[in-house]
């Protein structure tokens, strides 16, 4: 008898695991460069949407028809399917709105001109421009503490989405499911 393993990997857990690795790298850095925030925020959005699609595909029979809708519409559908109302005014959904707002500004953004201070000499002005003292406004409300806190807020959001449908609290991190398939019959050698 021969045996063949089959493993089904979940998209949301692949994104989530990659994101957690990114958080570990970020935490270990000594420097605080705001440009390091963006990959974490974008991958948080990937993780959120992947899990929304995972729950939807498992719990709503016609999800394939909805999968291309905007993320917010899908969250509304997950709620309305249960005759519940999404509360966008507070966490955890408010966190999702913030993350996707930043992601959308990156994905769909237009050039932004930020004016620095008036400087007394050219060298100071050029230094401000080239040393990146002037940052895009996307960083105005972001700092290292917000990023570190966002991991916990992400957990709460994903747990909330799963709990809507009675899924285990860490369903979003469920990486894979393995099964073994037998080939041949018990009397075969090998």
List the helices and strands and how they pair.
Elements: E1 2-9, H1 11-28, H2 37-59, H3 71-80, H4 93-108, H5 122-130, H6 144-164, E2 176-183
Antiparallel strand pairs: 1-2
Helix pairs in contact: 1-2, 2-3, 2-4, 2-6
Task: Describe, in plain words, how this protein is organized in 3D.
- This protein is mostly helical and 190 residues long.
- It has one domain.
- 51% of the residues lie in helices and 8% in strands.
- The protein has helices spanning 11-28, 37-59, 71-80, 93-108, 122-130, 144-164, and strands at residues 2-9, 176-183.
- A two-stranded antiparallel ribbon has the order 1-2.
- Helix 2 (37-59) runs parallel beside helix 6.
- The mean pLDDT is 91.
The low-confidence runs, each spanning 5 or more residues with pLDDT under 50, are none
Overall number of domains: 1
Mean pLDDT metric: 91
Question: Cα distance, first to last residue?
Answer: 6 Å
Q: Into which percentage range does the β-strand content fall?
A: 5-15%
Question: How does the major sheet shape up?
Answer: 2 strands, antiparallel
- What is the topology, as strand order, of the major beta sheet? 1-2
Tell how many strands the DSSP assignment holds. 2
Order of helices and strands: EHHHHHHE
Can you give the helix content as a percent range? 40-55%
Question: What is the rounded Rg?
Answer: 22 Å
Q: What would you call the shape?
A: elongated
**Count of DSSP H/I helices:** 6
Structural class estimated from helices and strands: mainly alpha
